[in-house]
Amino acid sequence: MKDVLDELAAVHRTMGSGTVPAGEAYTVELRRRYDAEIDDVWDAITNPGRLRRWLNSVSGDLRLGGTFQLGSGEHGDILLCEPPHLLKVSWLYGPDADAWPGTSEVEVRLSPGRGGATQLELIHAAFIEEPSFPTYGPGAGGVGWDLALLTLARFLTDGELSDHEEFERSPEGREFSRRSAAAWGQAHLAAGGEPAHVAAAVEATTRFYAPDES
After folding, report:
1. Which residues are in the Activator of Hsp90 ATPase homologue 1/2-like C-terminal domain (predicted)?
2. pTM across the whole model
3. For a surface tag, which of 1, 21, 30, 121 has the fewest beta carbons within 10 Å of its beta carbon?
């Protein structure tokens, strides 16, 4: 458990604002260091054979201007691709997502750090009227990205193939999700969130990712 919670603490989280083609957006921003060379991290997030080992299978026309689709349903267009520093995609998910293009974008920036390490920054911008935000706050996507960055860390360390569902159901994974939801609540407060709304959003996010076991 300690190693997993150390990984949680390795991420710096902020909530901010930005724009997407649909209009004003809120952002969830994650930043952390990986003990791996920048070319290795870039390959892990763009090479389909490696991406499927820590995130999900990916298909599509995987080039600048092309499209992608993950096995878990997320899909979109490849907007920017500047190896090994910048990847930006539109990010749609859910049965009605295609009716609302331009509402969600994910950008990943990599920069070399000391001792051969790599700094990763992930920014997910979502249209301010995105329907899940009033209920879940930034934790709607933030907890999911925390889980993804954890599995990427494990993959870069030992090449481990991750079973996301098994981990999320485990006591270790449930505690990770609870603490991640609370951390995103703190980021929401720091961004000026109303305390009662933040508390309700953290509770809803926790129930979603770590529901009570009956």
Report:
1. 35-129
2. 0.94
3. 1
Integer Cα distance of 134 and 7 in angstroms? 28
Beta bridge pairs of residue 92: 75
Q: State the residue range of the domain holding 41.
A: 2-209
CA nearest 90: which of 101, 14, 82, 120? 101
Rounded Cα–Cα distance for residues 15 and 7 (Å) = 19
Roughly how many angstroms between the first and final C-alpha of the chain, as a whole number?
A: 23
Residue among 47, 53, 205, 78 nearest 137 (CA): 205
Quick: pLDDT tens for 115-173: 999 999 999 999 988 778 899 999 989 999 999 999 999 999 987 776 778 888 899 99
Residue 115: inside a domain, yes or no?
A: yes
